[in-house]
Design goal:
- The complex is a heterodimer of chains A (about 110) and B (about 150).
- The longest helix of chain A is centred in the C-terminal third of the chain and has 26 residues, at about 85-110.
- Chain A has a three-stranded antiparallel β-sheet.
- In chain A, a hairpin with a 5-residue loop joins strand 2 (about 65-70) and strand 3.
- The radius of gyration of chain A is 16 Å and the shape is elongated.
- The model of chain A is unreliable at about 1-5 (pLDDT under 50).
- Chain A has about 110 residues and is of the alpha+beta class.
- Chain A has helices at about 5-25, 30-40, 50-60, 85-110; strands at about 25-30, 65-70, 75-80.
- Chain B is mainly α and about 150 residues long.
- Helix content of chain B is about 85%, strand content about 0%.
- Chain B contains seven helices and no strands.
- In chain B, helix 2 (about 20-40) packs across helix 4 and helix 6 (about 95-105) runs antiparallel to helix 7 (about 110-145).
- Chain B is elongated and about 80 Å long.
- In chain B, about 15% of the residues are buried.
- Classes of the chains: A alpha+beta (about 110), B mainly alpha (about 150).
- At the A-B interface, helix 2, helix 3 and strand 3 of A face helix 1, helix 2, helix 3 and helix 4 of B.
Chain lengths: ~110, ~150
C-alpha cells in the first residue's frame, strides 16, 4: 500500500492532530485542517481534504472519536475528539519526539575537526 | 499489536460498509466546503470566487473519495474484486471462446491438474450460460413476450 507522504511526515501529522485535539477539545475536520495549515505553513497537507485520510486512520486506531454535531454558526459538522488511548499515544509520541530531536540537536552541535 | 489488530478489524468493517461510509464522508466534505466558503466570503471574497477557491483548497472530491476508501478499507481486495468482475464481464461476452479453451484442456490428457482446471472452466461456462439465459429471459419478460 503506497502512502502519499513518507511515514515520518504521516507520523508528524498524526502527532499534530492528537496534540491539537488534546489542547483545543473537540473540533471538526475543517478546523483541524486550518489549524495545521497555520502551524505547518502548508508543508503537511496537500490540500485540506487530505486531513480526512489521517483522521479516519486515527479513528480506526481508536485514538480519536468522531460524532456528528452542530458548529458555532449552526452548521452540521462531524466533530473529532481525543480518547484516553489517544492521550496515552500522544504522551508516548511526544517523548519519542523529544528523544529524537535531542539526539539530532547534540549531533549537530558537534564541532567540525579542522 | 492490539492497535494493529483493531485497525485491521476496522478496515474489514469499513470494506463491508462502503456505501454508507462513502455517503458519510461525502456529507462531511459538503459540510467542510460550506464552512470554508462562508469564511472566504466573510473575508471579503465574492461568492463565485470563494466557491472556486474552496474547491481548490479542499481538493478534488473523486480523488479524495478514492483515497479515503484506500485509507480506511482493504484497497488490495477491492482492486482484486474489481478485476475479477471485469474478467467475468469480458468472458461472458465470449462463451464460445471459453468453451473451446475448456474443451481443449479436456482433450489434452496431461494429468490431474489439467482436468481440474478444465472442470473449473467448464463449470464457469455453464454458470455463465445460465446467467446469460436468465438475462435473456428477463429481457423477454420485460418486453412482455413471455408473460403476455
Amino acid at each position: 500500500m503506497k502512502e502519499d507522504k513518507s511515514d515520518i511526515l504521516q507520523g508528524t501529522l498524526d502527532l499534530m492532530v492528537l496534540k491539537t485535539l488534546d489542547a483545543m477539545g473537540a473540533m471538526h475536520g475543517y478546523g483541524i485542517a486550518r489549524r495545521i495549515e497555520q502551524l505547518s505553513e502548508k508543508a503537511l497537507l496537500v490540500n485540506q481534504g487530505t486531513i480526512y485520510l489521517c483522521l479516519v486512520r486515527l479513528v480506526q486506531k481508536k485514538w480519536i472519536g468522531a460524532a456528528w454535531g452542530t458548529s458555532d454558526n449552526n452548521r452540521r459538522a462531524k466533530f473529532y475528539s481525543i480518547t484516553t488511548a489517544g492521550r496515552k499515544q500522544l504522551v508516548a509520541e511526544a517523548e519519542n519526539w523529544d528523544r529524537v530531536s535531542g539526539v539530532i540537536g547534540r549531533l549537530l552541535q558537534l564541532s567540525s575537526r579542522s | 499489536m492490539s492497535t494493529k489488530f483493531r485497525q485491521y478489524v476496522a478496515r474489514v468493517g469499513a470494506f463491508l460498509r462502503r456505501p454508507a461510509l462513502d455517503r458519510d464522508f461525502s456529507e462531511e466534505l459538503d459540510s467542510h466546503f460550506t464552512m470554508l466558503v462562508e469564511d472566504l466570503v466573510a473575508g471579503g471574497l465574492p461568492l463565485d470566487q470563494a466557491r472556486q477557491k474552496a474547491r481548490l483548497d479542499l481538493g478534488a472530491r473523486s480523488q479524495l473519495l478514492k483515497a479515503h476508501r484506500a485509507a480506511r478499507g482493504l484497497p488490495t481486495l477491492e482492486m482484486l474484486l474489481r478485476d475479477l468482475r471485469r474478467a467475468v464481464q469480458i468472458l461472458r461476452k465470449h462463451p464460445g471462446l471459453v468453451f473451446i479453451a475448456g474443451a481443449m484442456i479436456c482433450l489434452s490428457r496431461h494429468g490431474r491438474q489439467h482436468r481440474l482446471a478444465a472442470l473449473i472452466i467448464l463449470l464457469a461456462v455453464t454458470t455463465m450460460w445460465y446467467l446469460v439465459a436468465q438475462r435473456a429471459k428477463a429481457d423477454l419478460d420485460r418486453r412482455g413476450v413471455v408473460s403476455a
